[in-house]
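Sync notes, pocket subgroup
Present: LS, DG
LS reminded everyone that the earlier model was apo-only. Rerun requested with 5-phospho-D-arabinohydroxamic acid included. Inputs:
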Amino acid sequence: MPEEINRPFSFDVIREEDVTLSTYDNHIKRSLSAMRNQYHDEQAYETLLREEDCMLYEVYEVKRPEIAGELLQGISIVHPGKVGDEYFMTKGHFHSELGTAEVYYCLKGEGLMVMETPEGYWAIETLTPEKVLYVPPRWAHRSVNTSRDEDLVTFFVYPGNAGHDYGSIEKHGFRKLVVERDDQIEVIDNPKWLPPEVR
Ligand code: PAN
Ligand code: ZN
């Protein structure tokens, strides 16, 4: 078989106390300092950051060529915790190739996927073990861990040519935030969200 042939392969999801993959190419760690301006309580953010630049989430990536036809896969692990009253979450992004979708399969924990289109339509879906979530083309997505003490672990698959646009969300934010109020999970309006007409 010629060297350049793309060979099929498999790997395992290792479900020990920390979920990992048996094979991966990249282990990304994102800490609090990577999330400046994303949490609504700026004072709580600065206070926590002064104490410790704690780890918010990790991603294990199985790399493939970043071209149409390929699928990129991996697991995302959002740790439990809050900045003020707002749960730990991923940065969130649009795919640079806006017309590309993504599938998430929840392996562990509980959380929400917050989604939004460039026009400002929004949607939230629950993530619990064994739930499969389809993020259609054009929807920005952010996972939020709403559990008190457990990691939120999801397996994801998306097209090789998707790319990541973080800048748009950094600039205008997500329309909705997920916070804890009186021991309840609440979805509130993001006071810093910029609607499409003022971007
Ligand atoms: C996921 C995310 C992962 C981390 O692989 O990249 O959950 O979130 P951020 O990329 O927003 O930091 C995905 O959606 N890829 O397209
Ligand atoms: Zn994505």
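DG: The chain has a mean pLDDT of 97.
LS: The chain has one domain: 13-189.
Action: DG to write up.
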